[in-house]
Amino acid sequence: MDSPKIERHKRRSPSSALLRVIRERDRTATTTLGGLLASLGDRSFGWALLLFSLVNLLPLPLGSTLVTALPLLLLSAQLAMGYPYLRLPRFLAQRRIDDAALRRTVIRLRPISRPVERLVRPRMIWLFHGRNERLLGLALFVIAFTLFLPIPLSGWFPAISLLVSGFGLIERDGLISALGLVLGAVSVLVTLAVVMTVSAGARAVIG
Question: What total of structural domains would you count in the chain?
Answer without folding.
Answer: 1
